[in-house]
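In the previous chapter we treated chains in isolation. Here, by contrast, the input contains two separate entities that must be folded as one system, with a combined length of 716 residues.
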Amino acid sequence: MHPRDIETPALVVELDRLTANVERVATAARGRGLRLRPHVKTHKCIEIARLQMQSGAVGLTVATLSEAEVFARAGFDDLFVAYPIHPRGPGAERLRRLLDTVDLTVGVDTAAGAAAVAHAAGGRAARVVVEVDSGQHRTGVAPSETVGLAQACADLGLDVAGVFTHGGHAYGGPDAPAAAGHDEGAALAESADLLRGAGFDVRTVSAGSTPTTGVDRPPQVTEERPGTYVFGDRQQVALGACGSDDLAATVVATVVSVHADRFVVDAGSKVLAGDRPPWLAGAAAVTGLDDAPVTRVSEHHGVVDRGEASWGLPEVGSTVLLAPNHVCTVVNLFDELVVCRAGQVVDRWPVAARGRNA
Amino acid sequence: MHPRDIETPALVVELDRLTANVERVATAARGRGLRLRPHVKTHKCIEIARLQMQSGAVGLTVATLSEAEVFARAGFDDLFVAYPIHPRGPGAERLRRLLDTVDLTVGVDTAAGAAAVAHAAGGRAARVVVEVDSGQHRTGVAPSETVGLAQACADLGLDVAGVFTHGGHAYGGPDAPAAAGHDEGAALAESADLLRGAGFDVRTVSAGSTPTTGVDRPPQVTEERPGTYVFGDRQQVALGACGSDDLAATVVATVVSVHADRFVVDAGSKVLAGDRPPWLAGAAAVTGLDDAPVTRVSEHHGVVDRGEASWGLPEVGSTVLLAPNHVCTVVNLFDELVVCRAGQVVDRWPVAARGRNA
């Protein structure tokens, strides 16, 4: 089947681009002596995680316990929940089961969160890494506070393995990744040195985001956790993390309505998600039509207003390909990925961890 | 179980508010002599559609063929796809099956779309209504073009039942609904009169959106299609379509991280969706905390920056309730609704049509 004949809206993955992206980042990490622990929140897909492990990843990063459960059931046994979880009730029981079945590490950024993890672990020496704030000012402690939090974790009987950070301020705009990558390295180096000075056995010093993955790292850093690189998206192209020829995931949509000043496709906010950084025009771009932005969305409509553009209007019933702004939130809206190679549909892969937010 | 003890993030529905919303709009429509055909894209839930039918709805509105299939399987037999569908391939077969099993009406706004419907229908006199553009300038034809499109449909063997519109420009801001509601009525009255003058048997003249549902309608209008009113959301409160005491769907989240200037909850863009109208601050509001806006989101983090606010920071591990900006896209991110009454979880309802975009 040709991808243009599938029912729309659909999310199509170009297999050759996907495998090239997986290999490229794996090779780069190997060349720099860094372990690669890709974040699976981007693809939520067993088959893609297998490709990543086959290319040399040491394990997987997940965002939630329920994502961990999906990948644990599929046989992945080294999982890092890069999030300051706060398990209680059924969540505490789920954490215990994961600790009993896989090699699990979880993030901490407060003593109260660490206490919840220790309580849920029920005597197991759960492995934790301390989240360090490298400049996004979301979660994470200042490097100077790392030792205090690590000591609190140790006092609770937890195994402190090191530190991690996410330089999310890399998404501030096209000029942001270099500085954010530098910030990640500096915050990690400082906190790792402080931890070692305080006698902790630091095994993990983990940085992570696709736009900062190429930045030089200080020697203390041991690991990278990029996620979006498997597919790329408009954000990553604008941030310089990939080229438009690397984009491996595209929404296929049907033109359902055409007017003199616009056309409308059957992909709206329930397909394209809502990420609209101020440095990117529209909710997606129509590839093959001068990357015309989808100027407006409602739930099931994507409107491409023509403005002063010179492209010709497509025909009602034709299909168009849309490059998403942020592929992670788009994948989470689909139940399956339509896998294509050389213009043919060759497989369909479930988005196994779709909606696994808890 | 108390809703504060459930695993987070979760979407909690207050049953008493839901039933009051369903009844209020049904009673108002009855009082005005209008048929009510609620749009189920908001809730995607069989149980709530049953409440709507029990309170006097004449049928349901859906956005896609796959939504129609979900509700047809559950026994709902009068369905209107309020969208200019363009069925082909497997979609054409699905349309035929629906035409054979339920009382189906579909939208059209181009002759090419109508031809695709007629071709897919395979000789069945499929019932269509012409979409009229009442000012949103998304899909729909100008009232003056209604007769030409209706004639093209009739020439294709389709049964033209009337006209419909969606005054989506009601979402332009707090002052927009009154004018948009007037526009809906004017466009529908003009196009219905033109169709009748051309000899068409006009049975359906359908307006629809929650913010315009209370606006006076000209006598030609026969039907209303609001959707969001069952839950309400921050948008509807700001637009004057409901009060904050009517909000029936709330995201329960856990505070996972607290810092001097902010706290972070486990509900980000994969839970709160991406609707951020310029006339509403933040991605959601924390009820019970001066409606503090969720100022930043990433996929699994909602950050509430304190700014100059006077509220006290919540404790790590505590739960907060978040009022979503646009509940329709939030519901579509959950697999189930946690139904509560008098502070107790009384049921869990599947979001049966979640992700049914095709």
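The two ends of chain A are 37 Å apart (CA to CA). The longest strand of chain A covers residues 249-259. Compare these points with the single-chain example from earlier in the chapter.
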